[in-house]
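Follow-up to my earlier ticket, as requested here are the two runs.
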Amino acid sequence: MDQYKVVGRIGEGAHGLVLRGQRLGTGQEIALKRVLLKKLEDGIPTTVIREIKALQEVDCEYVVQLLDVFPQGLGFVLVFEFMPSGLWEMLRDAENPLTVPQMKAYMIMLLKGVAYLHEHSIMHRDLKPANLLISRDGVLKIADLGLGRMFWAEQNRPYSHQVATRWYRAPELLYGARYYTEAVDLWAVGCILGELLTCSPLFPGETDIEQLAIVLRTLGTPTAETWPGMTELPDFNKITFPETRGVSWDQIFPDCVPEAVDLVKKFLVYNGDRRLKAKQALVHPYFFTLPLPCQLSGMPKPVDGHRHQFKVKEYDIEKPVDELFSDLKGMLTS
């Protein structure tokens, strides 16, 4: 920790506070993710070990860079490049609404990042606007691999279904699937694209049951043909929903060009095996029709304070470092 100085608070991660800092000597802006162990005998959480291992293997312009890892007190600290804002904030910046070319550029960056992760056998399992950060140069980068997991196509092994934030959770996960693929990320990509196009979440459920009900009501009741193996999912027979034909895509996206709607449709498919791969999506006609994707020079360049314009709670950045870490310890042990 003697190489860094804490200057403020960024937000809260899965394991505690994320602090803003500087590297002493160079002045480089960094983000410090402090992880405290709840019980020493329990060791380091497996989710954190997975995130570290995954990030140490990643070298992609569109995935946030892990700069350093070191022990600190009863835990350790992950050091990341500092990102002043994220897609969640960009979507809520009513004074600076995103243009279609900027939306397309963000989607290209997201797809390139997802394609890289999948090509390197990494499932993210929690893609959502809040985990897509924006650099000062306007580059979108995938962050928070706390739920990330290595996978191998030839191995049919079970995973936890308690992953992904509810609004972006694939239907197989909502039905309790333990055997699934990186296609869960592709469903989330479709949800994110839909949110960009409509400026609101597509499936905003308050509970898992309501979430599944909204998906089925919107896309229609799946069949054995559209979703093979559906009836074999662990929670399929625990609840039934009224049969529905779903809502027309034109009604869901009334002001969108056909190419945009077609791309969303190819992600939001019940059968995960048929969802469009990220690499394939990069050559979809949506990105080659006017208006074309924005050049990086024309992308929004978030400035200091942009993130906090859209947060409910502010934080006193003058608090001493010891108090900041004390707050974090209290959160984790409560």
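Run two:
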Amino acid sequence: MAISPSEAAHRAASDRELVAWVDEADQVLGALPRAELRERRLIGRCTFILLFNSAGELCVHRRTLSKALYPGYWDVAAGGMVSAGEAYADSAARELAEELGIEGVELRFHERFYFDQPDNRLWCAVYSAVSDAPLRLQPEEVIEARFIGLEQAESESQTQSYCPDSLVALQRYKASQS
């Protein structure tokens, strides 16, 4: 399946966005275009927002094929890179609104953790939110979304392609709730 012209334009703009560049202790070193950060295997900041409905089901969504990392994968969290000069909490609110169209909800902070894979080095902040508002998907980033139980999400992640970084965020969230 080919990517649409709007997805391609969105990807190009995204690659040029200035994002926070940090060291292994999460100290800000500066700002770099997102694509350069990836190419040089440097560390950036990101947010993960676990969106639940009032029934306790988790929103999972499938990423578009134009995404630089994990194209077409299922994701258990909304989120993305923290922009240069942006606070984690501001990034989380922006990403939830952009990707899923959810605004004005309380974001509960859980923790930060370091994720380190050769193609994806991140300081991650994990948030959760509850909303029954209708989802408004960003077509350049999200193909489809649905609410499922946590057990189903864990089961599906064994047989389907799920983003490994957000799965770690979910595992850490679950561990903190027990």
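The only thing I checked on run two: The mean pLDDT is 93. Let me know what else you need.
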